[in-house]
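--- STAGE predict ---
source: upstream dedup step, 1 unique chain passed
mode: sequence only
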Amino acid sequence: MGFPKGSIEAKNIALKAWETKRKRGTDHWILSQLAKDNHSKAMQGKNKGRVPWNKNLTKEVDSRIRSILCPGEKKTKISLANLKVLGTKEHKNQQSKMMKEMWQTPNYKKHHREAEQKRQKEGRYKWQPNSKQWESSIRFGKKNPNWGKPRTKETKSKIGKANSIQMKRLWQIIEYATNQMKAIHSKPNKAELALQGILDDCFPNDWRYTGDGSLIIGGKCPDFSNINGRKVLIELFGDYWHRNEDPQDKINYYKKYGYDCLVIWEHELKDEEALKQKIMQYLPQYYQPSKK
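--- STAGE serialize ---
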C-alpha cells in the first residue's frame, strides 16, 4: 500500500532512496559520464543532414509542441518549489558534502582533469590575464551563435513582455518578494526616516516601517502599516521619483485587498502639524491614536 503523495512517509522514503543512491559512491557517476562520452563519439556525424522533427513547428500548429512548453503558471510553481528546496541550508549542506566526497575519489579527479585539458586544447577556454583564470570563450565573439544577428524591435518587445509577465507572477508569491527585499537589504531613506519620526512622535505605537519587505500585499511593499489591527497603509511619494505617478492608482490597488491607503508627498513633511491633521481627517473611521 503506497503513501499519499506529499505525505511525511512518502518524503521519508524518497529521502532514504536518495541517500542510498548517494552512498553507492561516485564510481557509478564516473562510469555514466564515460558512457555518455563514448556514446557522443559514436554518434558524431551520424545525424548530419537530418532535419529535426520540430523544425518550423510552433505551439499554434502542433499539439506536441504545446505539450512540451510549460505555461507561465507551471513555471511559477517550479520556481517556488526550487526556492523552498534548493535555497535551504539542509540542501546546500548535502550538496557540499556530496561534492567533497566526490573530489576525494581518484577516478573523479582524473576524469575532471582530463575533461578540462580537452576543453583547453579545443580552444573552448581562453586565459584571462587580469582575473588569472580560464573563462569560457563559447559566448564571446564570432563563436557566439547569435554573432552578427541583432535582435529586431519586435523580438526585444516579445522578450521584454514575457519577462515582465513572469516577474509579476513571481512577485505575487510572498516568499519570493520577501526574499528579494531581504537580499537587497532595503532600508528607509531620509524622507522615510523623517516620516517615521513624525509618526512615532504624534501616534506612538501605531505605525511601523514595512518598506523592507516585512509586509507584502499583492506583490507590492507598502512603506508604513498600522500595527493595531487596522487595515490602513501609508505610502510616501518622493517629489522627484513619483512626479509622474497618480496616487489614486496606488490607493485603488490596495483597495482590492481590503486596505485603505493614504499617500503623503515628500514636501508635506515640512509642516508636521498639517500632516498630522491630514492623517486624522483622512482616516477617522479607523484611526484612534494611542495616548502618550
